[in-house]
Amino acid sequence: MKQPVRFTVPILFLASVLASPGGEFWEKKEYRQWSQKECNKLLEDSPWSKQFTLTNVGIMDSQDKMSSSAQQPFIKYQVQFRSALPVRQATVRQMQIAQKYDSLTPEQRQEFDKRAEAFLSADLSDAVVVNVSYTTNNQTNALELARYWQSQTTDLLKNFVYLIGSKGNKVAVGRYAAPQGGQQEFQFIFPRQVDGKPILDPQEKSLKLEFTYPIVGNMGDGRAFLEFKTGKMIFQGNIAY
Questions:
Q1: Helices in 100-164 by DSSP H: which ranges?
Q2: Vertex 145, ends 142 and 150: CA angle to 5°?
Q3: Which 3 state secondary structure label does DSSP give 31?
Q4: Nearest-CA neighbor of 97 among 112, 111, 119, 117?
Q5: pLDDT, tens digit, 9 for 90 and up, residues 70-86
């Protein structure tokens, strides 16, 4: 896979919500019916996405709330399995909502649909793409983070970035896609198979992401461990990742 998986075309689609009782919204509704709130949920805190916040007093995950002053420096990392179809669908839907798809001209809709379909149908049979973004409320910290992540390479990270199964098997990052321009996001790209075998055994109960990050502003310990429960990562009958 030569290019990081991205979708940068602006767009929107307004649809009625038809929900059946029980289950998550991604099980009940086609993605073009998802609301902005639902897209945010899937992209920020779902079976395929997690976030954690670094402060001077510790590390908080997505279930914690900052109780200190809003002026307290923080760094927040958002992690997504971008290769998982529901994440890509939520990304497309979010862009539809942002740009009022129904108000576009027929030509603009056709162009959007073409690019959206290419993004959704991308061949990821040989790659697991983990997208990581970060935000901070301190300009000095932002500059340090940008310098660090733009200077990283696959060779520098291959011994510090892994996907780990519940049985302890580690798969090193196969490619690192550094931030482009002023973007505050990057991608870890892992092989989907090693020695002809899928990196995730169907019996695995979880998939962990381990990676190092820079200690900026005396925040964090430089090491991130995020666990994703595979039993909850089911989409259209299969584990999506």
A1: 106-120, 139-151, 154-157
A2: 125
A3: helix
A4: 112
A5: 578 999 999 999 999 99
pTM over 0.70: yes
Give SS3 for 197. Answer: strand
| Residue 141 identity (one-letter amino acid) | N
Q: Which residue has the tokens 């510090």?
A: 160
Q: Token digits for 200?
A: 């995730």
Element (H, E) at 224: strand 223-229
DSSP conformation letters of 32-96: GG--HHHHHHHHHSBTTEEEEEEETTEEEETT----S-TTS--EEEEEEETTSHHHHHHHHHHHH
Cβ contact 82:129 at 8 Å: yes
Nearest to 149 by CA among 183, 106, 98: 183
- Count CA atoms closer than 13 A to 63's CA, side-chain side: 1
- 3-state SS, 159-185, equals CCCEEEECCCCEEECCEEECCCCCCCE
Dig out the tokens for 102 from the structure: 């129904």
Residue 97's H or E segment, with its range, is helix 85-99
* Per-residue pLDDT tens over the stretch 182-233: 899 999 999 999 988 899 988 889 999 999 999 999 999 999 999 999 999 9
Give yes or no for a contact between 163 and 209, defined as CB atoms under 8 angstroms apart: yes
Chain center to CA of 97: 19
CA distance 224 to 157: 13
Determine the Cα–Cα distance for residues 96 and 38; give it in Å rounded to an integer.
13
Question: Token digits for 217?
Answer: 């502003």
Q: Which residue has the tokens 């075998």?
A: 197
| Residue type present at position 28 | K
